[in-house]
Amino acid sequence: MIQHFSFKPLFENSQLPGWSISFFYQRERYSAEYLKDGVIQWNGAIPPNDEDVKKMIHELMLYHVYD
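Request: output the structure for the sequence above.
Response:
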């Protein structure tokens, strides 16, 4: 389960899509960039079960950003 999920725009112009995200997963901190086409580019380590983590991130972004 993802904990302490946070996001902020990559660009000053908030109309441009792209976000910097960070969260904890299995007691490790991860960060990534969530691009306008839904691609996730990891900054550093890739979490285990990354496909499952990507699904959770997509759901959170849909809820928080696209709602």
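The chain has a mean pLDDT of 91.
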